[in-house]
Amino acid sequence: MKLTARVQQVTPSMTLAIDTKAKAMKREGIDVISFSVGEPDFDTPPHIRAAAEAALEQGKTRYGAAAGEPRLREVIAQKLQRDNGLCYGADNVLVTNGGKHSLFNLMLALIEPGDEVIIPAPYWVSYPEMVKLAGGTPVIVSTTLETGYKITPEQLQQAITPNTKLFVFNSPSNPTGMVYTPDEVKALASVIVERDIWVVADEIYEKLLYDGAQHLSMGAVSPEAYDRTIVSSGFAKTYAMTGWRVGFLAGPVDLIKAAITIQGHSTSNVCTFAQYGAIAAYEQSQDCVQQMLAAFAERRQVILDYLNAIPGFTCPKPEGAFYVFPNIAQLGISSLEFCDKLLETQQVAAVPGIAFGANDCIRFSYATDVDSIRRGMDRLTQFVRSL
Ligand SMILES: *Cc1c(COP(=O)(O)O)cnc(C)c1O
């Protein structure tokens, strides 16, 4: 079969591959401890499920507007005003099948052959592949342990060419868990404004912050930054709604209209009753978020204590999301070999940094219970001793 050049240049998701292997081992009855999954282990809070069930009962089971249920678009716009200081109305919002789909719609609407998209590494696995699928060129800028894996304004300046169309900015970050301080966001915004490029702020982890870390939305820095910012986010990580597939894109009306057209010819509306769960998530009490955050905070401390005690591991303290990203350069083993052997000999699953463009690192997700974290970290410690 002759497949397109478009699809042949795309790498399958390595995070999904490891997860598949770990799940297959579990099915064989092997006691696998997994740090590889990028999703909360909690159930969706009951009031959100109840809202979707009520919507089902009320017959919200038909096609809806491609752009999303009008009420949800409004509620998202209100949230962006209230929480993020971004002046958007319902027209500025498109409801998508998750944050991944919102980024994909954006790439199709904004990027074409010849366009360069700047992506700091370590990056979320899908960014470069989406740019390639849209026909654009990903420009990867490697960051270092010394800057906490954050791109500096100088690095951004240097990566910009006349072909640069977009900068992909993700804070808190998957895979590093690092959070850009408000000052760092402002410094990057100045470069964006001065060089007049677009930025997409992937803010899907904005509520998962520790140690008093603060989230500043790129578009809230100044009116000039607002004009060049597009927001991508969703409900999956904050409200344990990964399987619901509800996210959104927010930005200038022209861009949103273009993305609605694309969505109208590809997926049409997001599952109608799922959108009513999302309305409840934003409109009702946020206590559930605080509860999950408290659990994540405890687990984060447990896993950090273990990792910091392992010789050869250098682990910057993450201030957001639910990942830690230790550097293993001192051990002299590639991330892929490390993870393969760890899974085979100790039945512990983690994701090699090479999947995120950082071959010196390993990603551990602590979206799992404390007991599993302890058992898994004991096995990891033994494994590193055996190297
Ligand atoms: C999980 C994730 C998303 C999107 O997830 P959806 O399930 O599609 O909403 C987007 N960006 C990053 C960095 C993520 O980790």
What does this structure look like?
The protein is α/β, with parallel strands linked by helices. The protein folds into 2 domains: 5-44 and 287-386, Aspartate Aminotransferase, domain 1 (Alpha-Beta Complex); 47-283, Type I PLP-dependent aspartate aminotransferase-like (Major domain) (Aspartate Aminotransferase, domain 2), CATH 3.40.640.10. It contains 14 helices and 12 strands. It has helices at 5-8, 14-27, 46-57, 70-84, 98-110, 126-133, 153-159, 182-195, 223-227, 253-264, 272-283, 287-308, 335-346, 370-386; strands at 33-34, 93-96, 116-121, 137-142, 164-170, 198-202, 229-234, 247-250, 323-324, 348-349, 351-352, 362-365. Strands 2-8-7-6-5-3-4 form a 7-stranded mixed β-sheet, with helices on both faces. The protein has a 3-stranded antiparallel β-sheet with strand order 9-12-11. Strand 3 (116-121), helix 6 (126-133) and strand 4 form a beta-alpha-beta unit. Helix 5 (98-110) packs across helix 10 and helix 12 runs parallel beside helix 14. It starts with a helix and ends with a helix. The model has no long low-confidence stretch (mean pLDDT 96). The protein binds pyridoxal-5'-phosphate (PLP). The site of pyridoxal-5'-phosphate has 14 residues, from helix 5.
